[in-house]
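Q: What changes when zinc ion is included in the input?
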Amino acid sequence: MAAAMDYELARERLTDFFQTFCVPDQNGDKTFIYADQIRQVANRVQTALYVYLDNLLQHDEELYNEVRKNSARYHQLTYDVIDKLVHNELRNAPPPVRDALDAFLYQRVYLEAQQRSADGADGNVQNDSRKKIPPKLLRRYEVYFVTPELDKCLAAREILAEHVGKLVTMRGIVIRCSEVMPHVNVVTYLCDTCGCEVYQEINGPQYAPTQACPSKDCQESRANGRLELQLRGSSFSKYQEIRVQEMSDQVPIGSIPRAMSVRVTGENTRLCQPGDSIKISGILLPQLRSGFKNQAGGLVADVFLDCHH
Ligand SMILES: [Zn+2]
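A: The predicted holo structure follows.
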């Protein structure tokens, strides 16, 4: 087996794909489909960016194979790459302000950088301001992978442990849809004593609120600054859980239909209803459980499909 591609090289090749992949339009001119969309994303006109793996296969087969082998990791790498491309797109312009969080980031990154450069600081001050803020808070878009047209469409019972971390295409009937709920990605707090801002990234389904101010000022003076949640500077996304069951043609005679839990986020929410027959691509992920439930679960881990398309 060939060694896995080095992630630095993978980032370069993903960047190349997004910048140079093009298709001819009706007039035979080149359309840079991803570069154009990244510009839209940077200007906050577009939120979801769908990456068609058919396109990647055509452009760079080796990279395509890496994405298939290690989809969850490559999803994160793709975010890193697009974060950079979006940042480059806005290098010489003030970032667009379309909602309260945009306004918050405009203030923290753009205006403070301008202030500091007016005060005579040198170097790339906008970069300095960005460094303090988690990338997840600056990220106002979503990236999804779309599996190739010819990918085998699996039934719930055909999705196995070997698919964990990988992209699969699945077919079934929606039997349950939850309400669309807000899911918090990053919480921003403000210290009532020293005024410093604290960011907390939320990766799992639960979080414990931070309470004591970690700033140097507060720690040294033992001021015990209290942190207050700042809704305006926090980032939320839409979140929905659906349950997809096998259709009768997928169930062997005498068997009971199996079902799979699917988590749907952002622009992919509210696209189906119970009774709909659907085809989904997504990454199979282990269910992270906390506390006692985890101990009871032992080695048997639940899985769910993180929906991409
Ligand atoms: Zn403080």
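Observations recorded in class: The chain has three domains: 7-142, 151-180+239-307, 185-235.
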